[in-house]
Amino acid sequence: MHCAYCGGQNPEDARFCAHCARSLQPASAAGTPPPAQPVPPGQPDRVPLTGDPIDPPPGPGGAPPPAAPTGAPYTCAVCGYVLGPFDQACARCKTPRGMRVDPAAAMPGTYMPVPGLEAGMVNTSGARSTVPEDVKRGWNWGGCTLGCFWALAMRMPLWALAALVSGFCALLSIPLAIFLGIKGNELAWQNRHFESVEQFRAVQRAWAIWGVSVTIIATVLYLVFFIISIAAGNLR
Predict the structure, then answer these.
(1) Is 0.85 surpassed by the pTM of this model?
(2) Exposure check for the chain: N or C terminus, fewer CB within 10 A?
């Protein structure tokens, strides 16, 4: 059964909602409730259940949590399961919020946005679906310089294996580095879930700093070793 207050799904024999703790019995069966008592400032207006915090977790970087969607409860477009206000994926079929299965996709498990939903409610990261235009733009220095490790962190094991194998052949590693630099943002967004575009940019920026730093250090060490080798050869 579904709660009349929050839309949460509950067992048929449940007396109270597992999501908002309100009574699931009709008003006639439950009787007349006692008058509400004033709630002291700073105290929750209901008793929390186990593992059910009153306040949602803060956003990335300590930012305030996103506001819960208003209006009717959101129902999964694939299996019909009712999602909570802060659920990003269906608990039953794992479909991302605001997405449905793409029937025209060649790869199974590919999703597409549900028509008619607000764009702000749809987060397509990790769904192998459409990529926002502002995410596609820019060069991905993490994928270009640290291909194998970056691909593993972005949930792309096959690309990581390809980067590892190509590392033994410059004819393969250079084209692959250029490809990951161009398409890295798009691949990372499709294969790993991010809470927001801002978090995606912060993660890629951190990988870019590490990648460029490691590349500069490796280049300097190589030049020093090369100069020492030449100098040692001239002394013989």
Answers:
(1) no
(2) C
